[in-house]
Amino acid sequence: MDNDYISVTEIAGEEITQEQVDRLCNRYYWVRQYCTGKDML
Questions:
Q1: Alpha carbons within 13 A on the beta-carbon side of 30
Q2: Partner of 33 at 20 to 30 A CA spacing, among 17, 23, 26, 41?
Q3: Mean pLDDT per 10-residue section of the chain, whose length is 41 residues
Q4: Model-level pTM?
Q5: Residue 21 to residue 28: CA distance in whole angstroms
Q6: Predicted pLDDT at 12
Q7: How far is Cα 37 from Cα 30, in angstroms, rounded to an integer?
Q8: CA 13, 14, 16, 20 torsion-angle sign
């Protein structure tokens, strides 16, 4: 299976789309439920 993730991958120094910002935020909003009250790196 050949997957092309370049359209949704954040690359340092490159501009990103609003969709990429939304995806990034959603990752952190989702994971915080598992991290609340814990020490995280």
A1: 6
A2: 17
A3: 68 84 90 89 80
A4: 0.54
A5: 11
A6: 81
A7: 15
A8: negative
